[in-house]
Amino acid sequence: MLEDKSPKKTELSSLGEFGLIEHLTRNFSLEQSTSVKGVGDDAAILQFGDRQSVISTDLLIEGIHFDLSYVPLKHLGYKAVVVNLSDIYAMNAMATQITVSVAVSNRFPLEALEELYEGIASACAIYNVDLVGGDTSSSTKGMLISVTAIGEVEKGNAVYRKGAKANDLLVVTGDLGAAYLGLQVLEREKEVYKVNPKNQPDLSMYSYLLERQLKPEARKDIIELLQKLEVRPTSMIDISDGLSSEILHLCKQSEVGCNLFEEKIPLDPTVIAGCEEFNLDSSLVALSGGEDYELLFTIGQDDYEKIKGNPNFTVIGHMTEAKEGAHLITRANTKLKLEAQGWNALN
Amino acid sequence: MLEDKSPKKTELSSLGEFGLIEHLTRNFSLEQSTSVKGVGDDAAILQFGDRQSVISTDLLIEGIHFDLSYVPLKHLGYKAVVVNLSDIYAMNAMATQITVSVAVSNRFPLEALEELYEGIASACAIYNVDLVGGDTSSSTKGMLISVTAIGEVEKGNAVYRKGAKANDLLVVTGDLGAAYLGLQVLEREKEVYKVNPKNQPDLSMYSYLLERQLKPEARKDIIELLQKLEVRPTSMIDISDGLSSEILHLCKQSEVGCNLFEEKIPLDPTVIAGCEEFNLDSSLVALSGGEDYELLFTIGQDDYEKIKGNPNFTVIGHMTEAKEGAHLITRANTKLKLEAQGWNALN
């Protein structure tokens, strides 16, 4: 009964996150007539009646996904909801409900959970979603938060990672890299605090970076704007792991290549200043930093006129035939193969 | 930034699981027109088009909800799915999809996750549900599994915890207490193993008890049977925490009382024998043991003829006016107040 039934040992790290879930779910097929889209996109799509529901779920773990020594619980609750809503919007859908399960060890008093739920309530109010389920339980270590988001989209309107065509334009919303730099500021202050707990640092110059890290927003406004502009992206994804990783997801699932232009990547001035201070390459931060929760999508060239000049959008490249591969065209006009480095590139 | 923002400290244990989630969600209201039923039942109900979707979610934590020293990973995967499906069936709905998120520390090799997903696949095949989403990530300690189940039900057919009327009959499916006794056998064998790892115990006499604990089934068949018999329960819940706790949920939400007859509680002969061996009271085990995943429901007296004599069902009591309270009528004809002891009663 207690023998080791797994004599073969393959290190999980040898597969990587995306390889792992693909491997584990390779034999699962969709049998239900209501299952439209399963594993492998930002969210799943289910067809109930004439509307489609969209489902996305995320498990956040203290010490892996967040550090309570500098993340206020209210912000954590807010962010846990927002990152899930972002996946729903990335399907061109509107989020409608969430469920939240929380587990905590006995070091947390009720007031800590109240703060967390204040943040959850705040996100629910701002994004107009209802909390409809979930539970609380004990954990052996730290805090765990599992959020499932549900949304809806009219049949035919969902946008997948698959769908980009060669010559489509690659568009990103907002600016990139600030969330990662915000994390660098917080990590540095944590070290300072360890040495001198009485130090009260002035972090006001980093307020944009910190806000992007601690209290990110999901781009519900963009989904509404695209509808108003009558632009239907050919493919879409949200930027949680970093620009290069997300571009490669679009390329792989759409079976296309891509040319990304370094000089086009939108950077906030505080990101450029912060990169100088931390001695980081700002393009690398944008490409690999992640957690920006902006939307990355492709549109047909015909739609360019509709988005041209809108400050929400930046065209950063175009898709190519698959055989051409995915490349970054640097400011020096060198062509580099795009690689999904995610966080690893910066560690 | 790093100061303690929660000077008030209230121990979570002072509220209990049900009190806690009620407290934390007391200020959340349902604003979306598609939100039919939120927190506080076995599952949430959403209205998309003419069909209703049902959503339930559960977070399982190693060391809290399962012990990998005696639970095979394949069974764990199976059970993690089944306990969520049980919540969907408890709404009189059919489960259609699940999402699964798993986090593991680096002590787990790929083969361990493969075993877990074998069990998940097996449950998906047997209950005819599709895995449509989820992810894998790292944990700082042990294994965590978060499952969200989605189902559907025709408008007007969902059965809530609320709805029982005075004089309705209280009905339970299958038999109770075996899952708890199975756990006792496993805990005992774990202690034996610690002393003598080479001991190969013969557990064949406990096979029913062990199966109920390690590989429980959800009562999809009962939902199909009730439909065939044209019986629509007035209220329903699944038995995860123990009979007495679930009865009190029905009473509270339906605003009724209850008389439960000890002599009517269905017990398998192996449960009676096991209770003698472990020196436990079999009624207490059935009332407080939990994890049986049977269905508990109420029906109008007019429906009695339809279920009479069916071996799947046992009438164990009847509902009363709320002011009469909830009571256990013992074999000695004593009337005891029913209390939600859950696991605590047996620890």
From TrEMBL, chains A, B:
<feature type="binding site">
    <location>
        <position position="291"/>
    </location>
    <ligand>
        <name>substrate</name>
    </ligand>
</feature>
<dbReference type="InterPro" id="IPR036921">
    <property type="entry name" value="PurM-like_N_sf"/>
</dbReference>
<feature type="binding site">
    <location>
        <position position="343"/>
    </location>
    <ligand>
        <name>substrate</name>
    </ligand>
</feature>
<feature type="binding site">
    <location>
        <position position="58"/>
    </location>
    <ligand>
        <name>Mg(2+) 1</name>
    </ligand>
</feature>
<keyword id="KW-0547">Nucleotide-binding</keyword>
<feature type="binding site">
    <location>
        <position position="241"/>
    </location>
    <ligand>
        <name>Mg(2+) 5</name>
    </ligand>
</feature>
<feature type="binding site">
    <location>
        <position position="42"/>
    </location>
    <ligand>
        <name>Mg(2+) 4</name>
    </ligand>
</feature>
<comment type="pathway">
    <text>Cofactor biosynthesis; thiamine diphosphate biosynthesis; thiamine diphosphate from thiamine phosphate: step 1/1.</text>
</comment>
<dbReference type="InterPro" id="IPR036676">
    <property type="entry name" value="PurM-like_C_sf"/>
</dbReference>
<dbReference type="GO" id="GO:0005524">
    <property type="term" value="F:ATP binding"/>
</dbReference>
<dbReference type="InterPro" id="IPR006283">
    <property type="entry name" value="ThiL-like"/>
</dbReference>
<feature type="binding site">
    <location>
        <position position="117"/>
    </location>
    <ligand>
        <name>ATP</name>
    </ligand>
</feature>
<keyword id="KW-0808">Transferase</keyword>
<feature type="binding site">
    <location>
        <position position="58"/>
    </location>
    <ligand>
        <name>Mg(2+) 2</name>
    </ligand>
</feature>
<dbReference type="GO" id="GO:0009030">
    <property type="term" value="F:thiamine-phosphate kinase activity"/>
</dbReference>
<feature type="binding site">
    <location>
        <position position="56"/>
    </location>
    <ligand>
        <name>Mg(2+) 4</name>
    </ligand>
</feature>
<dbReference type="GO" id="GO:0000287">
    <property type="term" value="F:magnesium ion binding"/>
</dbReference>
<protein>
    <recommendedName>
        <fullName>Thiamine-monophosphate kinase</fullName>
        <ecNumber>2.7.4.16</ecNumber>
    </recommendedName>
</protein>
<keyword id="KW-0067">ATP-binding</keyword>
<feature type="binding site">
    <location>
        <position position="240"/>
    </location>
    <ligand>
        <name>ATP</name>
    </ligand>
</feature>
<feature type="binding site">
    <location>
        <position position="57"/>
    </location>
    <ligand>
        <name>Mg(2+) 1</name>
    </ligand>
</feature>
<keyword id="KW-0418">Kinase</keyword>
<feature type="binding site">
    <location>
        <position position="42"/>
    </location>
    <ligand>
        <name>Mg(2+) 3</name>
    </ligand>
</feature>
<dbReference type="GO" id="GO:0009228">
    <property type="term" value="P:thiamine biosynthetic process"/>
</dbReference>
<comment type="similarity">
    <text>Belongs to the thiamine-monophosphate kinase family.</text>
</comment>
<comment type="function">
    <text>Catalyzes the ATP-dependent phosphorylation of thiamine-monophosphate (TMP) to form thiamine-pyrophosphate (TPP), the active form of vitamin B1.</text>
</comment>
<feature type="binding site">
    <location>
        <position position="238"/>
    </location>
    <ligand>
        <name>Mg(2+) 3</name>
    </ligand>
</feature>
<keyword id="KW-0784">Thiamine biosynthesis</keyword>
<dbReference type="InterPro" id="IPR016188">
    <property type="entry name" value="PurM-like_N"/>
</dbReference>
<keyword id="KW-0479">Metal-binding</keyword>
<feature type="binding site">
    <location>
        <position position="87"/>
    </location>
    <ligand>
        <name>Mg(2+) 2</name>
    </ligand>
</feature>
<feature type="binding site">
    <location>
        <position position="135"/>
    </location>
    <ligand>
        <name>Mg(2+) 1</name>
    </ligand>
</feature>
<feature type="binding site">
    <location>
        <position position="161"/>
    </location>
    <ligand>
        <name>ATP</name>
    </ligand>
</feature>
<feature type="binding site">
    <location>
        <position position="87"/>
    </location>
    <ligand>
        <name>Mg(2+) 4</name>
    </ligand>
</feature>
<feature type="binding site">
    <location>
        <position position="65"/>
    </location>
    <ligand>
        <name>substrate</name>
    </ligand>
</feature>
<feature type="domain" description="PurM-like N-terminal">
    <location>
        <begin position="40"/>
        <end position="153"/>
    </location>
</feature>
<dbReference type="Pfam" id="PF00586">
    <property type="entry name" value="AIRS"/>
</dbReference>
<feature type="binding site">
    <location>
        <begin position="134"/>
        <end position="135"/>
    </location>
    <ligand>
        <name>ATP</name>
    </ligand>
</feature>
<dbReference type="GO" id="GO:0009229">
    <property type="term" value="P:thiamine diphosphate biosynthetic process"/>
</dbReference>
<feature type="binding site">
    <location>
        <position position="87"/>
    </location>
    <ligand>
        <name>Mg(2+) 3</name>
    </ligand>
</feature>
<keyword id="KW-0460">Magnesium</keyword>
